[in-house]
Amino acid sequence: xxxxxxxxxxxxxxxxxxxxxxxxxxxxxxxxxxxxxxxxxxxxxxxxxxxxxxxxxxxxxxxxxxxxxxxxxxxxxxxxxxxxxxxxxxxxxxxxxxxxxxxxxxxxxxxxxxxxxxxxxxxxxxxxxxxxxxxxxxxxxxxxxxxxxxxxxxxxxxxxxxxxxxxxxxxxxxxxxxxxxxxxxxxxxxxxxxxxxxxxxxxxxxxxxxxxxxxxxxxxxxxxxxxxxxxxxxxxxxxxxxxxxxxxxxxxxxxxxxxxxxxxxxxxxxxxxxxxxxxxxxxxxxxxxxxxxxxxxxxxxxxxxxxxxxxxxxxxxxxxxxxxxxxxxxxxxxxxxxxxxxxxxxxxxxxxxxxxxxxxxxxxxxxxxxxxxxxxxxxxxxxxxxxxxxxxxxxxxxxxxxxxxxxxxxxxxxxxxxxxxxxxxxxxxxxxxxxxxxxxxxxxxxxxxxxxxxxxxxxxxxxxxxxxxxxxxxxxxxxxxxxxxxxxxxxxxxxxxxxxxxxxxxxxxxxxxxxxxxxxxxxxxxxxxxxxxxxxxxxxxxxxxxxxxxxxxxxxxxxxxxxxxxxxxxxxxxxxxxxxxxxxxxxxxxxxxxxxxxxxxxxxxxxxxxxxxxxxxxxxxxxxxxxxxxxxxxxxxxxxxxxxxxxxxxxxxxxxxxxxxxxxxxxxxxxxxxxxxxxxxxxxxxxxxxxxxxxxxxxxxxxxxxxxxxxxxxxxxxxxxxxxxxxxxxxxxxxxxxxxxxxxxxxxxxxxxxxxxxxxxxxxxxxxxxxxxxxxxxxxxxxxxxxxxxxxxxxxxxxxxxxxxxxxxxxxxxxxxxxxxxxxxxxxxxxxxxxxxxxxxxxxxxxxxx
Length: 850
Prior knowledge:
- By secondary structure, this protein is an alpha/beta fold.
- It has six domains: 16-28 and 330-403, no CATH class; 33-110 and 283-291 and 311-319, no CATH class; 122-269, FAD/NAD(P)-binding domain (3-Layer(bba) Sandwich); 408-539 and 661-672, no CATH class; 551-647, no CATH class; 707-849, no CATH class.
- Helices cover 40% and strands 13% of the residues.
- The protein has 35 helices and 24 strands.
- Strands 15-19-18-17-16-21 form a six-stranded mixed beta sheet. It has a five-stranded parallel beta sheet with strand order 3-2-1-4-5, with helices on one face.
């Protein structure tokens, strides 16, 4: 069976190399263009943020963190970073050098740089220029004893000859004084013309020779380009050469001093001189920064004669900074934005999550909340697939038995119901042995818009030759999204067998997810969308439901890579006379509605946020060709039409109406099956046994919907209470309370009986198993954890008083003894709603994460 080419884990969890591969695809942590071009990698982006905020003190700290002699270099840097500035593609590059000079004048100098404890080794530095000073600065900070042997009468070299308006003499003097305070011994007037004194060579563990002093070759090509090792030497390094035209670059001089200091440190500590040095000096960057919406702007020119930006001018110039980052995926995805990170961070969190043996798995919700829609991949310059990462992690969790039961169980049960006897159907067209086509509407259209299923099937039967069969069931995409490959493959195989029994007809789908699943995993079905089928059949005559104004088209994310299907929807709607508008994110870049990937099952709050965000993209009414997209967006407060409303305008539909709830969806599927069997094949299927007359107090159904409690779950509790008589009664109100655990969920229903009519007043659930006073908890002493109902005078219907007693509550192999109201005779225990939905839910979540 063919699957999407998603990366797979090897072994029980993600391997280190696989993590590296995932991390490397995310470029958010790549350096910005300015920092990559800077030979010493000053964090210009952070510097700009502080200058934009008007905080020159903090900005200066950033310079002092990276720059040697910051008050000197910040004044005279020749700013190669400006040539790489992304802003130059939209106006002038940032005036980074001007901002550094302004910062030095406006910000207060920080304290003396920190110096590491002494390492007991000494280094000699020959020369007194910027390169020698930078080398000494870095070495003394690393804990080495440093002596500068300067041939001039004053240290500084060409620095001392710069004009005052370029480098104030006080700034140079202050930095030299700071070096001496850090422990650098500066010796001026040293005669180096006759070669290197023996005491200098023998008294130091490593040596640096600046250009123009002994041991430094005349040209850069004479030294090792990576380590700056002097030719024929073991412990002598060099640097500070002029450029090809004889000019000196201050930032390159400083970079030479830093590279030489790093080499000397490696030599004196016995480390490799060459290992892992690829990030020194200017480097390439893979960072991508979009200029979409960025207006060109010119740099701010200083008004003062000094040529230095004042505080207001500096803020205005720094505001032009683009704060270069990628974050293209985060910009378009509410899910990624919610977790306040980016894919590289998420990959690490997911790796750590898989590596936990004992402890809390913090990333479980992160992994299961992704809609798997694939938008991140489309906008990422490196095509990072958060969907692939999360689905790989889900499969791994399932394989290792670490998938929380509550994450996808409800959705998988819904899938099982769709493939069960209440809805599943596979029949050829009446009167034909084999059908040329098979209509597969999908379980969600049948649940939400069953009338469209009946109308579409009748229409296709009239227009397509060779007969059209019908198959009602789920395509099994929930199992795929849940990482349950075993369940998906089993369901897909069942579907394939049924399809072959119908004569292997070509499949027509009305659901975008079904279409995508079949194209990926069951291509032999030769699937096409109903919208593409309309190109063969034409549209029904008289389909003329009007719309007020243009409609914004929402593309299902599962049609992201299916342009023919997307265009077929638009073609049909335009043919029906509708005016259409495109959303900012459409087609290949469409956003998910919040249903995909089982986001709504694993993280309902996130799903609501996603739907509301999508709904808020346009003031126009919307039209969607996917029933779940329509219902999710409508639930988010948007007026949304289903596209089939215009093709088969039957019962008047309200585009603002929310879709049916979970219970109604089940009922709609069952009714659709019965009506189609009766109307098309002349078969009467016995309806499900009618439950007792049950009503619901105002608001109860909404609460049940949020808590994923179906009406059939409530009916099962009521039926069990009626059969066994096991229930409790509130002697104040006469209301009853019963519970039942038909599966892995324990349901509680409070209800009233009046003239044979049952009215449900409350319903709640939990996943913990309980052992009452007559079970394994008997003999256990009462505990300090006592949970009594907030209201009511409860007694057991058997006539026995309810008294506080110890009860063992267990879940996923862990057990806790708590005190609840219990009946010793019937073995009943009362779990209050506040306990089930509060403390108990928290403990269940904690145990699932473990």
